[in-house]
Amino acid sequence: MAAGWQDVVRDAAAVRDAAAVAVDAALLAGGLMRTGEQAHASDVVNYAPFTLLPSAVPRALFEQAYAVQQDFNLLVDAVSQNKEFLEQTLASTIKVDDFTARLFRIYMQVLEEGLAQTVFLGINRSDYMFDCGQDGTAALRQIEINTIAASFAGLTSRTADVHRLVLKVLGKTEEASQLLPNNPAKGLALGIAKAWELYGSQRAVVMFLVEDVQRNIFDQRCVENELWNRNIRVVRKRFRDVFEQGSLDASRRLYVDGQEVAVVYYREGYVPQVYNQQNWEARLLLERSRAVKCPDIATQLAGTKKVQQELSRPGTLEKLLPGHPEAVARIRATFAGLYSLDQGEEGDRIAATAIADPDCFVLKPQREGGGNNLYGEELREVLKKIKDSPERTSYILMDKIKPQPAPNYLLRTHTPLQVSECISELGIFGVYVRQGRELVLNQAVGHLLRTKAIEHADGGVAAGVAVLDTPYLV
Ligand code: ADP
Ligand code: MG
């Protein structure tokens, strides 16, 4: 590996000592998660899984990812305001995908009523892998952009200190001093605070819309505590609480349990399983309200896989961001090949290509949260089965990114210490706030590196596959 950990990676005694230091440091630093067994309370907690060693990341690609983030913020915001584009792009998807269809129906309903919301807050995370070309050079390739509930801004701020200590323990003091500081949770709070301020009511609270099972609560607390530091009140509610205690007044101000809500920050609501009839009603109530939703439903739709695929068509970015040719070029430079499976000749052709050569592609349904994509033989079987049915339009195809693996140790509870060949995914957090038509804040606020063993094609940290990491720029 280019970072030069070769000498320590195979030194079993040094690795064992460093791992013990690392785990205690992670616990001390607050890199925490609730356990699966006690997911409803914080009496018993564990460390969030992480790598023993920071992973090498090419400096130029890291800088490229930061440099394009404001462009992506601009793009997501533009898509969210473009009814015609969303309508056209999602038309085929909503015919076959019930979840996207229901979100879309709420979107149309709130537009017809007229938006009460005037301040808009976007918190997104653009994820990348480093594609290794034939000649060995690496290129930055976007995996996806997450526009709802993008997590780990809090916990990732804890990992650099841990890795700094580990490198010192391993005798790499000089390398330790090069790890970058990183606190995206502060940046998320900055955006939420700005939106709260522009909403303009001192009494109003920020509401975190949270899951029933909150294993990743400490990640969210990092953002919450930054808001409390600014003397902004935070409450945590579930969809069910909103259904039972939520209401709108005549000017569509949102009240939950008697408190006016300025900002709704969703850490829930992106998978179909959470929505029963009551939760759909709660979602509609929130969307109709004047409160700043992060994201509003249009921005959630802007983050769908189908939108991502349409953005890669020649000419689309130019139409969405007129007058921004440089931003368009920077964005396009990060795109991997993306292909529509809509009915017709174009879809037939790419389906046949993917069936013939499944290892070059990933088959993606319109879902978030990891573990949904299909690869290799499974991709071939599914695509063969659906290639002549309308069902295929609920998927997109993407070129498979092939990063160069590097050895590392994945530290997780109750797991023996062993070296794994690993690949990493870099995420950049972006935050923006718009008031009416004016963008008043647009920033890249930090990064997240997640690393997994190569035998896992899919899945994130929450899914128990990837672990937290720190980039070591080379
Ligand atoms: P989700 O919304 O479920 O997070 P992603 O598009 O991020 O969907 O895919 C989940 C995971 O699958 C990613 O974190 C990555 O590990 C893997 N993956 C996704 N797209 C590709 C690709 N084009 N090439 C290689 N791996 C991919
Ligand atoms: Mg993802």
Automatic annotation (TrEMBL):
Cofactor(s) the protein needs: Mg(2+)
Pathway the protein acts in: Sulfur metabolism; glutathione biosynthesis; glutathione from L-cysteine and L-glutamate: step 2/2
This protein's UniProt keywords: ATP-binding, Glutathione biosynthesis, Ligase, Magnesium, Metal-binding, Nucleotide-binding
Residues that coordinate or bind Mg(2+): 144, 146, 368
Catalytic activity: gamma-L-glutamyl-L-cysteine + glycine + ATP = glutathione + ADP + phosphate + H(+); gamma-L-glutamyl-(2S)-2-aminobutanoate + glycine + ATP = ophthalmate + ADP + phosphate + H(+)
Keyword check for Mitochondrion: no
Organism domain of life: Eukaryota
Keyword field contains NAD: no
Cofactor note: Binds 1 Mg(2+) ion per subunit.
Gene Ontology CC terms, in alphabetical order: cytosol
Quaternary organization: Homodimer.
This protein's name: Glutathione synthetase
Lineage of origin: Eukaryota, Metazoa, Chordata, Craniata, Vertebrata
Gene expressing this chain: Gss
